[in-house]
Amino acid sequence: MDKMKEKSAGKNWSKHIDFIFIDMFCLQAAFLIAYLIRFDGANPYVEQEWIAFAFMIEFIDLFWMLIASPFHGILRRGYLKELLTLVKQAVGLAAFFALFVFAVKQGVTYSRIALMLTCVLYIVFSFAGRTAWKRYLRKCIENSVRRQMLIGGGELAVRYARQLQTQVHPQEKIVGYLAKTPNDTLADYAGDCDQLEDWLKNDKVDEVIIALELDQVGLTNQLVNTCEKYGVRVFLLPFYHDVMSASPSIECVGELKLVNLRSTPLDHLSSICIKRMFDICASLILIVLTSPLMLFAAIGTRLSSPGPILFRQERVGRGKKTFQMLKFRSMRITGTEETGWSTDNDPRKTKFGSFIRKFSIDELPQFFNVLKGDMSLIGPRPEVPFHVEHFKDEIPLYLVRQQVWPGITGWAQVNGLRGDTSIEDRIKHDIWYIENWSFSLDLKIIWMTIFGGMVNQERLTSKGDN
Fold first, then answer.
1. How far is 423 from 57, CA to CA, in rounded Å?
2. What's the whole-number mean pLDDT along residues 10-16?
3. Do residue 126 and residue 164 come from a single domain?
4. What are φ and ψ of residue 310, in 5° steps?
5. Distance (Å, whole) CA 397 – CA 395
6. Do 27 and 117 reside in the same domain of the chain?
7. Beta strands at 189-191 and 376-378: parallel, antiparallel or unpaired
8. Chain centroid, CA 110 distance in Å
9. CA R_g for the chain
10. Distance CA 298, CA 310 (A)
11. How far apart are alpha carbons 365 and 375 in whole angstroms?
12. Residues 312, 294 contacting (CB under 8 angstroms)
């Protein structure tokens, strides 16, 4: 799970807006100087083709940063890794632009030397800019460390202290902890909880973290009142922490405050509309683009074995409602499709069926499921009711997946969790996706699906005919 978060926590590009501006400025500077070198000091911003070039490379670079998240973990990266990241970004930038000019048949308009010089200078300028800004940010972090007093000596307090120790550049420092009895696992015992006011009045603490166990929660009001008396920020680490999502929300009913333990981005109408509109537009375009391939698959399926062209199977979708998921039939009709498992050497598969499964061509009719509203392009893979009933009692949070539309591809699939892989790991990835959904994350998953997620290794592909 930690590895999964490490690979994708960088999807939140907005927190790296400073590096994005630095990168785009360095790219434009690299283009300008490369043009001046190549064309003996001529002005590139007076020719329409090169003005378009200047805008296009910035757009491609921004798209790359949105999809590839090159700034994730940037403060922890060393010089060599930063340089390799930049080289990869520059190569991607050049490749995308080359594809673009080839598509619009404008290859002869632009100088290859100017393009190569732009990439080289971009690496140099951006490396210098990123390095300087990282040094400045690290210095700011070191000078703005917040002193924290930890309240509690139980398991929650120990877990919090350990999490701070894992951070490379922590902005918080625990100056001590208050508890009824000392805990040898924690350092800097500062006394009983009653001594909190003494620490606050002497201005020794910037923040207070209350991490009390269940039998001590009665002290919470007193501790919070003490913190607010001295204007010190207070944070609560509740004893029910493990059953909360990454982003709970508060709802008010009169004077009472309700904690929504599993608030997700797709609870909001605006997010639902964005996702649904994208699904409708994208599925329409994909149906048109893949229609020749679907015609080929339909003819091949009909000729490969007797039976219908399309395989329809009941799956569980959003809100635990069932729907008929469509696929091109890849097996002979045997009557065991509802709960049977298909293996790599399954005798039910036809040769043509193996081919279309290998390249996920059999999944193409699901674009119609997306258009209808039963599925989304991106989401947890839908299961047959038989397996939903089986797994819901064995795997914690399994049915949380049913809070969103199931998808043709998803975060679990692009991270290699297809076929004979851990169902628990798949559920963790699905829940992480649900709690951290964003439009840019969907775009990233589509990108990863196209470049690596289309070929099915088919060790133990799925339940039924999935």
1. 42
2. 59
3. no
4. -100, 140
5. 6
6. yes
7. unpaired
8. 36
9. 28
10. 8
11. 12
12. no
H-run or E-run covering 82: helix 79-103
Residue with the two structure tokens 């229609």: 291
Burial label for 208, CB within 10 Å (0-12, 13-18, 19+), is buried
Element (H, E) at 201: helix 196-201
Rounded Cα distance between 175 and 206, Å, is 10
269-304 and 351-358 helices, crossing angle to 10°: 150
Are 100 and 60 spatial neighbours (Cβ–Cβ below 8 Å)?
yes
102 lies in the same domain as 163? no
Burial annotation 67-94 (CB, 10 A radius, 16+ → b, else e): bbbbbbebeebeeeebbebbeebbebbb
Classify strands 146-151 and 207-210 as parallel, antiparallel or unpaired.
Answer: parallel
CA distance 443 to 62: 13
Indicate whether 168 and 114 sit together in one domain.
Answer: no
Residue-wise pLDDT tens digits, 281-322: 999 999 999 999 999 999 988 888 888 889 898 999 998 899
Strand-pair partners of 207? 148, 233
Residues 317 and 418 in one domain: yes
Q: What is the pTM of this model?
A: 0.63
412 within 8 A of 381, measured Cβ to Cβ: yes
Express each pLDDT in 53-108 by its tens digit.
888 888 888 888 877 778 877 887 888 999 998 998 888 888 887 777 776 655 55
Q: What is the DSSP pairing of strand 146-151 with strand 249-253? A: unpaired
The reply to whether 235 falls in a domain is: yes
Which structural domain range is residue 421 located in? 269-463
Instruction: Let me know whether 123 and 159 are in one domain.
Output: no
Measure CA 287 to chain center: 26
Concatenate the DSSP letters of all residues of 263-300 into one string.
--GGGSHHHHHHHHHHHHHHHHHHHHHHHHHHHHHHHH
Q: How high is the pLDDT of residue 139?
A: 81
**CA separation for the pair 409, 369 (Å, rounded):** 13
What does residue 29 show for φ and ψ, rounded to 5 degrees?
Answer: -65, -40
Same domain, residue pair 124 and 159: no
